[in-house]
Amino acid sequence: MVILSPNLAFSVIVVLIPHCLVSRLESKTPAKFTDLKYADITRLFSPVEIGQCHLKHRLVMAPLTRLRADDAHVQLPFVKEYYAQRASVPGILLISEATFISPRGLGYPNVPGIYNDAQIQAWKEITDAVHVKGS
Questions:
Q1: Is the model's pLDDT at 55 over the cut of 50?
Q2: C-alpha span between 126 and 80 (Å, rounded)
């Protein structure tokens, strides 16, 4: 199953491989669509625990570099709404975008950081908005 996540500059493709096809992939035997059973598809929507996180399904938002921080690498105010929208269904695991952990590791402009108080505060507001949605 392939899920496309469009971005302004490019698309990220996340491939979710149902359990019934994994052994076929390992043995290099061609899999047929008929091998995919309804139970395997519905398993995507069954609960799972990852560490202390109790997810209501197995779909995860992959990390996407948004380049939506200011020149000081602080997330802009509308990013909180961006992540909150993606958490609109409770129980979604969102993996945040690439984030600089040090001013010495900067590679691109407008990528968020998490190495000073202003950046940490912006990320705290974002995570609080996601948690309010139940994710």
A1: yes
A2: 5
